[in-house]
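Hi everyone,

Forwarding the result from last night's run.
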Amino acid sequence: MSRYWSSIVHKLTPYIPGEQPKFANLIKLNTNENPYGPSPKVLEALKAEANANLRLYPEPDGDSVKEAVSRYYGVAHNQVFVGNGSDEVLAHVFLGLFKHSLPLLYPDITYSFYPVYCKLYDVEYETVPLSEFFELVLEDYRRPNGGIIFPNPNAPTGIALDPGVIEELLKFNRESVVAVDEAYVDFGAESAIRLIDTYPNLLVIQTLSKSRSLAGLRVGFAVGNRQLIEALERVKNSFNSYPLDRLAIAGAVAAMEDRSHFEKNRQMIIATREALAENLCSLGFQVLPSKANFLFVRHPFYDAEELSRALRKEGIVVRHFAQERISQFLRITVGTDAQSDALCDALCRAVIRPGSK
């Protein structure tokens, strides 16, 4: 600690991102990155943009990206907000829409950046326990609140809500913002964006990091009522007027426009996920039903942290959360078929051996 720090710094417990190991020949299944590269059209767009115009500031509001998102989802330009990854978008949401006298509500097992933002911006909050099956219980959100947020599919469980359930929530919760964090929606869930014109308090957040293979460019966006978008714009322009650089804008537009590449990649990941889930079940793992690009699994006879260490010795990195209720689970990113085979082979050596239970 330093005597030069502001008082708030001493109170913060920062978010810890997934490890980015440096050793060679690694099978990296811990941060939910897409195993397939971005669209070739993205690479062409980046090359075309790498010119003398880099001396100029980019579009302050990322209008080109807004237009691409508008065309893709059939929404108005002023219903879209863009930011430097969905994490920055979420940060503006917490400050601009959730800082009220009543507490924000979110699940007890969810994206671990949410409590970080609450502490950073001094947002009152309450966690709402998921069911014993890690499902959101709608009735538990029928209470006074300053906002509701949850991922769909949830992270790290991968379990998705039907849009009808989300609409039921919106019907009885009309006095505060309901934010649906759809980072993984493209891997089998259904987006709530179609509900934004009916429910002015609904905000949907997405990212290009996962399904469009652009984790390295940092582009996220939100879609919702224009008044919600205006609040985010006011926060953004009080923080950073140019969150997206020229390369990110060019790459994001190209990624949104290449629907065939997006569709091909996501279908490959979905197919690999289903095959991997079946193989893990055959090894005795409990596998939660996932609509994301990862699986959340546990074995009844083997400690999750020990399995994680055993896999690491085999050059395979997965994510273990030392958190109450989920400390015996591993989150495994869906990679290529070859990576999945290597994972299952390594797990066979770890759990199927003489003397195993």
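Residues 97 and 143 are 18 Å apart (CA to CA).

Cheers,
N.
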